[in-house]
Amino acid sequence: MSDTTPPQDFAATVAQLETIVERLESGELSLEDALTAFEQGVRLTRDAQQRLDRAELKVRALSEDPDGKLEVAPFAGAPDAGNDSEETPPW
Predict the structure, then answer these.
(1) 51 within 8 A of 10, measured Cβ to Cβ
(2) 17 in Cβ contact with 55 (< 8 Å)
(3) Gap between the Cα atoms of 83 and 17, Å rounded
(4) Contact 72/89 with Cβ under 8 angstroms?
(5) How far apart are CA 33 and CA 42, in angstroms?
(6) What per-residue string of b and e applies to 34-71 under the rule 16 or more CB within 10 Å gives b?
(7) For the chain, how long is the longest CA-to-CA vector?
(8) In this structure, which long-range contacts are made by residues 1-6, counting pairs with CB atoms below 8 Å and at least 24 apart in sequence?
(9) Cys-Cys link to 6, which of 17, 39, 47, 65 (CB 3.0-4.6 A)?
């Protein structure tokens, strides 16, 4: 994988971003190397955000009822399953 090609996997993108942040925080990079690492981090961050946006759209599409309203249901085995209050999603 080259520096310009984002990883195929979201977790790999996050791991690569963490590595870049550690390198930048170390303070051992030259200005040129720090700028290159920063640019790569920005590209990876944009890629990760696009992946998250696409995932959110898929979840919304799968969660909408025929009228376009979101169907909210607790996950099976959720710790507050006995709670009668219904949580409202952030959107």
Answers:
(1) yes
(2) no
(3) 38
(4) yes
(5) 14
(6) eeebeebbeebeebbeeeeeeeeeeeeeeeeeeeeeee
(7) 57
(8) 3/40, 4/43, 6/43, 6/44, 6/47
(9) 47
Q: What is the pTM of this model?
A: 0.64
pLDDT tens series, the chain, 91 aa: 455 566 678 999 999 999 999 999 999 999 999 999 999 999 999 999 999 999 988 888 788 777 777 777 776 765 554 555 555 555 5
> Which residues 6+ apart lie within 8 Å of 74 measured at CB?
80, 81
